[in-house]
Amino acid sequence: MSSPFDLSGRVALVTGANTGLGQAIALALAAAGADIAAVGRSAPDETLARVSEAGRHGVWIKADLDGAHGLGDLVAQAAAELGAVDILVNNAGTIRRSDALDFSEDDWDAVIGVNLKTAFFLSQAVARRWVEGRRGGKIINIASMLSFQGGIRVASYTASKSGLLGITRLLANEWAARGINVNAIAPGYFATNNTEALRADETRNAAILARIPAARWGQPGDLGGAAVFLASAAADYVHGAVLPVDGGWLAR
User: What pTM does this model have?
Assistant: First the structure.
């Protein structure tokens, strides 16, 4: 009997897979048997090399991911190169920091465009193919602790991640009966490029660590198991859920 977590023969489209959390998720899915379409602006050379080492196929699909234009073509390219897309991971994200009194419209639009608008319309593009083909699939949105909390000096990021959690639930409501699972992972405080400024701030770093029961920043690899679960048959009856991977942050 095969494992319910086995992803052999599946194709996962992962945005922002060149570094950090996206890379770790792509590698975990590949280790479980999936081929990987890594989507983003920069060539994910290291990611694709490690996908190959895991015995899976990987391709890079270049895209800016800052709006809705061309997303259908992007999905079609992934399907043409690797076969039908079975899993979508909306991981690509950006962040801008400024006091709310000074926050600019450009910083607002840049973050909302990548983190929320693109995630919705890429989900739409993938789901349309699934519905047309009368087949299901898995969508995993990468939310945040700021899907639950307000944060400080990251107005557009908080808005985007709160919105992404709402969209996860809405799409689950609309698509669950079509065999499409839409869920989210909410990472806690992870050691990535996006949190470099926080980790470099002695006061903020100490305050964050003091609240995490696990007493450490998360490492990207800590997300792999959650992603494999939500992408697999083990989660076939899981819809509209958010799985915090936060070292216990929300429990404190």
Answer: 0.96
